[in-house]
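quick one: heme C bound model?
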Amino acid sequence: MIRVMFSVLATLLAISVSAQDLTDAQRTAIEARIHPVGESCIEGDSGCGGVVAAAASSGPRSGEEVYNSACLACHSTGAAGAPIYGVAANWTDRIAKGNAVLYTSGIEGIAGTGMIAKGGCMSCSNEEIEAAVDYMVAGSK
Ligand code: HEC
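yep, here:
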């Protein structure tokens, strides 16, 4: 009888010990998972988490991607008098001004109009805005 009690006790002890181990392992795993979230990352800092590095290495967005995310809202509808993508008549006079002027309009905006600097995409590089202008011009001739 004592031997049976002993083995039951030993079993319980073993279970509680392994439960304790599991808890430690879980805690370590949880800490590893949540750690990057608590870090403050500066864009372009390659040593900071995987997410920022992955975003940085994906390279510049294409003109079409920038257009779809930052320009389409106005330029597909003509909101606020924006020249509409794909409507050549809206673009002939503007295209005649030359790419350099259109790039500047895209990057700096046009004061006093709905055309705000970079279409509001402040995370867009100048090159990405120029690519978006190229995309809009090419699709609107
Ligand atoms: C909030 C609305 C709005 C958004 C968003 C917007 N535009 Fe515009 N855009 C305008 C309006 C309005 C005009 C016409 C301004 C004028 O000449 O009166 C315009 C004009 C332009 C022109 C012609 C400029 C010229 O010199 O004739 C270009 C090029 C242009 N936008 C590029 C872009 C690009 C690229 C984006 C996205 C990155 C963008 N726009 C986002 C409203 C917008």
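The pocket of heme C is lined by residues 66, 70-71, 73-75, 79-83, 94, 97, 101-102, 105-106, 110, 113-116, 118-121, 129, 132-133 (CB under 6 Å).
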